[in-house]
C-alpha cells in the first residue's frame, strides 16, 4: 500500500498524461463503443423481419383483364392496381404536356416497352397512403379518368399521374417484369 | 422547498416514527399533497384539473392493465379479442368503454388544464420548467392515445396508423426508410400492432415519471393563483389538506358524474362506427378522421394544399402540425408581460378568447371532410393560430397597460390587510 501511494504521488508530480488518465480514457472509450454496439440490434429489430421481406414478390395472371378493366392485387400487403388501358385512355395520357405536370413523367416511362396498355401502379395515394378509387367496377375515377382518392381529393389521370389535389407524386410504379404474355411478377 | 410557515410532519405513533427514520415516505406525501404544502387561499375551480388529470392517468392505467389481460396483440385476432372483451369477459364491456372514454376524459381535463395555464400565464418565471414538462407530458399523451387507438385493429385503427406513420414519410431523404422502420413493414401489420401495444403499455408509466418531475418542479416556487401575485405571507396560504383535498374531492365528484353519464348512456358518442369493421388494407373508409382530441392539429396538417417554394405541401403540413405544439415550448419567452393573470390584462384577455374560438374552429374543421369551405377556413384559422403565438402575444405584452394588481393574495380576497403589509416589507420598518 505504502509503495503504491508513493508511486501515485510521484506520477502526479510529472507533467503530461498520467497512467490513470490513460486507463480512464481507455476504459470509458471501450465501454462507450461497446454500449453503442448494443444499440445496433435494439434499433435493427424494428426493421422489417425476414418473413415480411419474403413477401416482397408476387406473380399475377393478367390474361382475364379486358381493355378498360382493372384489378386490385396485393403486393407487400398493399394494394396494386393493374389496369389494361383502352386506346382512348392511352391517347388521353399521351396528349398531356409532360412538363406541365407536378411530377413530370410520360406514359412510356411508367410502362414497359411494347406493353404501354398495361399500367401497373401501387394502389397507395402518395399523399397519406389511402387507397384511391377507380380500379374496382363502378368506382369513381375522378375528373381525369384515372383514380380518385376520397380521403383528401387527389385526382390521378389515365397514366396514374397526379393532376389535382394535395398528393405530391404520381402513383408509384413498383418494380415488375412480364414473365410471359399473361403473367407479371411484381417485386 | 416550501414556505417557512409550512406545517411540519409529526409521526403519530411509534410505528410511523420508526418508518419516518428508515424511509420518510409518509413525510414526503405529507409535504407534497398533505397539510405540509401551503397553497394560495384564492385558487378557483380551474385549479382542479391537475388533480383530475392525475386521476385520469390512474384510471387509464388500471383499466388498461386489466384490458391487456384479455387482449391479444396479433393482427389475426386483435379485432376478435376486443369483441371477446365486449361480449364474453365479465364486465369487459364496461372496462373497455371506461378505458376508451377515459382517454377522452383525460384530454378534456388536460386541455382545460392547459388553457388555465394560457389564461393565467402559469408558464411565466419562476414556473417555466413546470410548463415545459407539461408540454412533454402532453406530447407523450398524444403518442400513447394514438397507439392505443390502433390496437382494436378496426378500419379507423388501421387507416389512422397508415396516415399518421405516413406523416414521417414526408420527411425528405430519410422519410420513407424511417416509415418502414417504424412500421416494421411496408404497411401496418403484425409488427406494427405488436410494437404499438408494447409502447402503449410502457408510455403511461413514462408519463407518470414526468408527472413526478412536473410536481417536483411545482413545489419549488409553489402553486400559482388567479391574481398572479406571489405568496407574501402566511395569511396568503392554506394547507393543501384539508382545504384543497376537499375542493379537489368535490371537483372529482362533478367530473365522475359527467364521465359516468357518457360511459353508461353514450359510450360510443365519441367513437367512429367504422372502427367496428375489421381492418382491411385494400379498402379505405370514405372519411378518415382521428379522435376528436387531435382535430385541431389534424386541421392544421390538412391546411397546406400548395407547395411553398421548394417545400412540398405534404411536408409543410407535417411541419406546421408539429410546430403547433412545439411553439408552446417557447411560450414563457414569447409572452414578456410582467403581469401573469389575464384578469389584469385587458388586451391579452380578448386575444385569449379569440385563440380559444380559433382552436374550436380548427377542431371543427379537423373533424369535417377535406372539402371547401372547411379547407379555406382551416387555412385562415391555422394562420391565426401561429399569428397569436409568434406576433400578437409579444406585441400585446409590449403595448398593453395592465390594470393595477392587488398588493397581496390576502388583500385580493379580504380587502386591505395591514399585517400582510408589515410582514411583506420587514426591511422598510
Write the layout of secondary structure elements.
The complex is a heterodimer of chains A (187) and B (429).
Chain A: H1 2-13, H2 19-44, H3 50-53, E1 58-61, E2 70-75, E3 78-84, H4 87-95, H5 107-110, E4 118-122, E5 145-148, E6 155-157, E7 162-164, E8 176-178, E9 183-186
Antiparallel strand pairs in A: 1-9, 2-3, 3-4, 5-6, 6-7, 8-9
Chain B: H1 14-22, H2 25-33, E1 38-40, H3 49-68, H4 78-87, H5 92-119, H6 128-150, H7 155-168, H8 175-183, H9 190-219, E2 237-239, H10 240-265, H11 295-302, H12 313-326, H13 331-334, H14 346-367, H15 374-399, H16 409-414, H17 418-424
Antiparallel strand pairs in B: 1-2
Helix pairs in contact in B: 3-5, 3-9, 3-10, 4-5, 5-6, 5-10, 6-7, 6-9, 7-8, 11-12, 11-14, 14-15
Structure in a nutshell:
The complex is a heterodimer of chains A (187) and B (429). Chain A is an alpha+beta fold and 187 residues long.
Q: Radius of gyration of chain A in whole Å, from Cα?
A: 30 Å
The total count of strands of chain A amounts to 9
Number of helices of chain B: 17
**Helicity level of chain B:** 55-70%
Cα-atom radius of gyration of chain B:
24 Å
Quick one: overall form of chain B? globular
Q: Give the N-terminus to C-terminus distance of chain B in angstroms.
A: 27 Å
Mean pLDDT of chain B: 92
Residue ranges of chain A: pLDDT <50 for 5 or more in a row? Answer: none
- What's the tally of helices of chain A? 5
Membrane topology (chain A): Single-pass membrane protein
Domain Rieske (chain A): 87-185
EC number (chain A): 7.1.1.8
Subunit structure (chain A): The main subunits of complex b-c1 are: cytochrome b, cytochrome c1 and the Rieske protein.
Structural features, described:
The complex is a heterodimer of chains A (187) and B (429). Helix content of chain A is 29%, strand content 21%. Chain A has 187 residues and is an alpha+beta fold. Chain A folds into two domains: 2-44; 52-186, Rieske Iron-sulfur Protein (3-layer Sandwich), CATH 2.102.10. In chain A, the strands form three sheets. A three-stranded antiparallel beta sheet of chain A has the order 1-9-8, with no helix packed on it. A three-stranded antiparallel beta sheet of chain A has the order 2-3-4, with no helix packed on it. In chain A, strands 5-6-7 form a three-stranded antiparallel beta sheet, with no helix packed on it. In chain A, a hairpin with a 4-residue loop joins strand 8 (176-178) and strand 9 (183-186). The longest helix of chain A is centred in the first third of the chain and has 26 residues, at 19-44. The mean pLDDT of chain A is 84. By secondary structure, chain B is mainly α. Chain B has one domain (34-428): Cytochrome Bc1 Complex, Chain C, CATH 1.20.810. Chain B has 17 helices and two strands. Chain B has helices at 14-22, 25-33, 49-68, 78-87, 92-119, 128-150, 155-168, 175-183, 190-219, 240-265, 295-302, 313-326, 331-334, 346-367, 374-399, 409-414, 418-424, and strands at residues 38-40, 237-239. In chain B, strands 1-2 form a two-stranded antiparallel ribbon. The longest helix of chain B has 30 residues, at 190-219. The radius of gyration of chain B is 24 Å and the shape is globular. The two termini of chain B are 27 Å apart. The chains are: A alpha+beta (187), B mainly alpha (429). Chains A and B meet through loops of A and helix 7, helix 8 and helix 12 of B.
Amino acid at each position: 500500500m505504502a509503495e503504491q501511494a508513493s508511486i501515485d504521488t510521484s506520477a502526479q508530480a510529472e507533467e503530461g498524461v498520467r497512467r490513470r488518465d490513460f486507463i480512464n480514457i481507455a476504459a470509458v472509450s471501450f465501454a462507450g463503443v461497446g454500449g453503442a454496439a448494443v444499440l445496433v440490434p435494439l434499433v435493427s429489430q424494428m426493421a422489417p423481419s425476414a418473413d415480411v421481406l419474403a413477401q416482397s414478390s408476387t406473380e399475377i395472371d393478367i390474361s382475364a383483364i379486358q381493355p378498360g378493366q382493372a384489378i386490385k392485387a396485393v403486393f407487400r400487403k398493399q394494394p396494386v392496381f393493374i389496369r389494361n388501358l383502352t386506346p382512348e385512355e392511352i391517347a388521353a395520357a399521351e396528349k398531356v404536356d409532360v412538363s406541365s405536370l407536378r411530377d413530370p413523367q410520360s406514359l412510356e416511362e411508367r410502362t414497359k416497352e411494347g406493353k404501354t396498355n398495361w399500367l401497373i401502379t401501387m394502389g397507395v395515394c402518395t399523399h397519406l397512403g389511402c387507397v384511391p378509387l377507380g380500379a374496382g367496377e363502378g368506382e369513381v375515377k375522378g375528373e381525369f379518368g384515372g383514380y380518385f382518392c376520397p380521403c383528401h381529393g387527389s385526382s390521378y389521370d389515365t397514366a396514374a399521374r397526379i393532376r389535382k389535389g394535395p398528393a405530391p407524386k404520381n402513383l408509384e410504379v413498383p418494380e415488375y417484369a412480364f414473365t410471359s404474355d399473361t403473367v407479371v411478377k411484381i417485386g | 422547498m416550501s414556505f417557512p410557515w409550512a406545517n411540519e410532519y409529526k409521526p403519530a405513533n411509534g410505528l410511523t416514527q420508526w418508518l419516518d427514520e428508515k424511509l420518510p415516505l409518509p413525510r414526503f406525501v405529507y409535504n407534497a399533497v398533505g397539510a405540509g404544502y401551503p397553497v394560495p387561499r384564492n385558487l378557483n375551480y380551474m385549479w382542479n384539473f391537475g388533480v383530475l388529470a392525475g386521476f385520469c392517468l390512474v384510471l387509464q392505467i388500471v383499466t388498461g392493465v386489466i384490458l391487456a389481460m384479455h387482449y391479444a396483440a396479433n393482427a389475426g385476432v386483435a379485432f376478435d379479442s376486443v369483441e371477446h372483451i365486449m361480449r364474453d369477459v365479465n364486465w369487459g364491456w364496461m372496462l373497455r368503454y371506461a378505458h376508451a372514454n377515459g382517454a377522452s376524459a383525460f384530454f378534456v381535463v388536460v386541455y382545460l388544464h392547459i388553457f388555465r395555464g394560457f389564461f393565467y400565464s402559469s408558464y411565466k418565471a419562476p414556473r417555466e420548467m413546470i410548463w415545459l414538462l407539461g408540454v412533454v407530458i402532453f406530447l407523450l399523451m398524444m403518442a400513447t392515445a394514438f397507439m392505443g387507438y390502433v390496437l382494436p385493429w378496426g378500419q379507423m385503427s388501421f387507416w389512422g396508423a397508415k396516415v399518421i406513420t405516413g406523416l414521417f414519410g414526408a420527411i425528405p431523404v430519410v422519410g420513407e426508410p424511417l416509415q418502414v422502420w417504424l412500421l416494421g413493414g411496408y404497411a401496418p401489420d403484425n409488427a406494427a400492432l405488436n410494437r404499438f401495444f408494447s409502447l402503449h403499455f410502457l408510455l403511461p408509466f413514462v408519463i407518470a415519471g414526468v408527472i413526478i418531475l412536473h410536481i417536483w418542479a411545482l413545489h419549488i416556487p409553489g402553486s400559482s393563483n388567479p391574481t398572479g401575485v406571489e405568496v407574501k405571507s402566511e395569511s396568503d396560504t392554506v394547507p393543501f389538506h384539508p382545504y384543497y383535498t376537499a375542493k379537489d374531492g368535490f371537483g372529482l365528484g362533478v367530473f365522475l358524474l359527467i364521465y359516468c353519464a357518457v360511459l353508461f348512456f353514450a359510450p360510443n358518442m365519441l367513437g367512429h362506427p367504422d372502427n367496428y369493421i375489421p381492418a382491411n388494407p385494400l379498402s379505405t373508409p370514405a372519411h378518415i378522421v382521428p379522435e376528436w382530441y387531435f382535430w385541431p392539429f389534424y386541421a392544421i396538417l390538412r391546411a397546406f394544399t400548395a407547395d411553398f417554394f421548394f417545400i412540398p405541401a405534404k411536408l409543410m403540413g407535417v411541419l406546421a402540425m408539429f410546430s403547433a405544439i412545439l411553439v408552446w415550448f417557447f411560450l414563457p419567452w414569447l409572452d414578456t408581460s410582467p403581469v401573469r393573470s389575464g384578469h389584469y390584462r385587458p388586451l391579452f384577455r380578448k386575444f385569449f378568447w379569440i385563440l380559444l374560438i380559433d382552436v374550436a374552429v380548427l377542431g371543427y374543421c379537423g373533424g369535417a371532410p377535406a372539402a371547401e369551405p372547411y379547407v379555406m377556413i382551416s387555412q385562415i384559422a391555422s394562420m391565426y393560430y401561429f399569428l397569436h403565438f409568434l406576433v400578437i402575444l409579444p406585441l400585446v405584452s409590449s403595448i398593453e397597460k395592465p390594470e393595477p394588481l392587488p398588493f397581496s393574495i390576502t388583500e385580493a380576497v379580504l380587502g386591505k390587510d395591514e399585517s400582510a403589509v408589515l410582514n411583506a416589507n420587514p426591511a422598510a420598518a
